[in-house]
Design goal:
homodimer; 434 Repressor (Amino-terminal Domain); DNA-binding (chains A, B); 350 residues; transcription regulation (chains A, B); 3 domains; 39% helix; 11 helices; alpha/beta; DNA-binding; HTH_LacI (chains A, B); six-stranded mixed sheet; Rossmann fold
DNA sequence: GCGATTGTTTGCAACGATGCAAGAGGCAGT
DNA sequence: ACTGCCTCTTGCATCGTTGCAAACAATCGC
């Protein structure tokens, strides 16, 4: 920047003004500086800017596994939404590791990112500081962590209910829920499943919630395989808590020669891209990832602005905090049921 | 850091020495500083360190689309390999946009990352500076960009040849190649396809290379759909240039009632996770992503060290450059053929 | 024609860390 | 006791940028 300043015959500060789009710069000066900028191939040092201004233009996104299609799609949506705001995303893969997740909640990414979007898996409730984190943080999806953290995601109970209601409408009565585990997410989807069955008056003996450790294709496959080898009567539908499980289930059914949807209907959640290409194409609950990403970034922004006091400039003090708005569980984001062949019974029963 | 220094009764510099693991610090001092560090909850500011030391501990990874399973898997591998080295990965999604890719080659990520791993899609050959980039850069996979850039990836010609040889061994003779496009990658896989057919003495009239714009499920589906509706004789095998295309092809075959592998065998490249769960499970060429990630980071490291002169410290000058080693096309990384049902003909022809 | 207002440019210090080199203390050798 | 050579610790300047506020110039109202 000093070089550019000399080359253009102005002060360093003026160059900074031009670069950062300060209003009060004469057109003549701006043009001259701009020319020098181009000529010398100036590139802004984002580190230095971040150090001085306290804002880096980065947002960190932490997800358990990037290879899981849902998280990949989520990441893509966040990256795109961030790009629209001129923000760069720093993707961190926690591997679902408790320790890594704890470090994130403790602020491990704070000074390099203006805010953190965190999709927790193990979600260590005890690991969040009692007073809440001292940096902008938004949770994605459901989790076990403190209620005081802002979060963005669909209403899992409603989503599960919608999926199961669809199966009921197709005439299914012995519906297996696949995916219950220790997570809050799993609890909620099981809850929605139960609500739908209760409301439809399905006899309790027909409920079956299959526990699954991880929501992956592998576990879906193995669990359904085991289910089919069991002695009980065949279910007429499987509600998988996510599409990866459903994909595994479809594979297991296919391998066992069970016809889908004629013998067993299948529904998943997430509507990952591959769900349109399974055998048969998978019915799924599709969250609007763009809305999730957009809203999450908006909430981060609100926090950043509300907490303007800390580390922004040389002088201290700021607004007394707007507190409301982003605090508390925000409104759930929209989702819709995408019906494909895997759940379309030839002749819906009465 | 100043606070910690006061609290421990030492100079700021000594705290820095402790934090960065400098050798000549007495055990007593180290312990005392460490205690203050913990007590005050000190967190290193990576921006400041990066600004002063010239190294940030970040590596940027630029891929076209994170939702494409291959790139997600690649990213995951890179993130893991980087974590082992104490490096954080900054993931950038170019969207395959020419302008974005140009900006990356121009060094848009330089001062925030110590090096860049770049998986180019449009690969603008003209956009790389004639003298080569002035920052550590490693290309992932094949590309059209300058030969002088170090790159890491499998031998695409050999991979394609292997895939096609496998189909030939299964008795297939009328093999369609699916995926030729403008990319270098596509050219090489087509080349391997041709080599295998030539070597096997398959009559030229049986060659068929189907062009495809993007290597996605959608394009694979649409292209095969069109192929099946055509008047020509049915192929007995499809060699898809990647698994996403193969997945689309499988869906199209399934939708048209064509049995796989009995009527048409299918092979893909990449061995993405979902390939083990398709109908039927997909035979594929599996690159070793861990080796790719590891080697790529190693090459970056070599470049970083070789170019130690620029911007490292206050004084100038460094080693006279090792030049060799990372220069020129490095040895191809290993791959293997993973045989699944999609290519297993019931009775291999003579 | 003069102070007030607005518009434009600038100097200085600082963000939080590290490179460099020198200072302080201890110990052995002569 | 003096020198030389360790080990340990420290002060100062600096990375590239922006916050703050002052300086200067031009314009305006009366």
């Amino acid at each position: 920047m000093r070089d550019v300043a000399e080359h253009a015959g102005v002060s360093v500060r003026t160059v900074s003004n031009v670069v950062s789009g300060y209003t009060h710069v004469s057109d003549a000066t701006r043009a001259r500086v701009q020319r020098s900028l181009d000529e010398l191939g100036y590139k802004m040092d984002y580190l230095a800017r971040g150090l001085r201004s306290g804002r880096t233009g980065f947002v960190a996104l932490a997800v358990p596994f990037l290879v899981e299609p849902y998280f990949a799609a989520l990441a893509q949506a966040v990256i795109q939404a961030a790009a629209r705001r001129g923000i760069t995303v720093l993707v961190e893969s926690t591997g679902g590791d408790r320790e890594v997740e704890r470090r994130i909640l403790a602020g491990g990414l704070t000074n390099v990112a203006d805010g953190v979007l965190f999709s927790a898996l193990t979600a260590p409730a005890a690991d969040v500081p009692p007073a809440g984190p001292d940096f902008p943080l938004v949770m994605l999806g459901e989790h076990n962590v403190s209620d005081h953290l802002p979060r963005v995601g669909i209403d899992n109970v409603a989503a599960a209910r919608t999926a199961v209601e669809h199966l009921l409408a197709q005439g299914c009565r012995r519906i297996v829920a696949l995916g219950r585990n220790g997570s809050e997410n799993g609890r909620q989807r099981a809850e929605g499943y139960q609500q739908a069955l209760s409301a439809a008056g399905v006899r309790r003996v027909n409920w079956l919630v299959e526990p699954v450790d991880d929501w992956t294709r592998e576990h879906g496959y193995a669990t359904v395989r085991r289910l089919l080898e069991g002695s009980g009567p065949l279910p007429d539908a499987i509600f998988a808590f996510n599409d990866a499980l459903a994909v595994g289930a479809l594979r297991a059914l296919d391998a066992s020669g069970v016809r889908v949807p004629d013998e067993v209907a299948v529904v998943g959640v997430d509507d990952i891209p591959e769900s349109a290409y399974t055998h048969p194409p998978l019915t799924s609950i599709a969250p609007d990832l763009d809305v999730i990403a957009e809203r999450a970034l908006g909430l981060l922004d609100a926090q950043t602005r509300a907490a303007g006091r800390t580390g922004t400039g040389d002088a201290a003090e700021g607004a007394p905090d707007a507190d409301a708005d982003w605090h508390g569980p925000s409104e759930a984001t929209p989702f819709r049921l995408v019906v494909r062949e895997s759940s379309l019974r030839p002749a819906p029963a009465p």
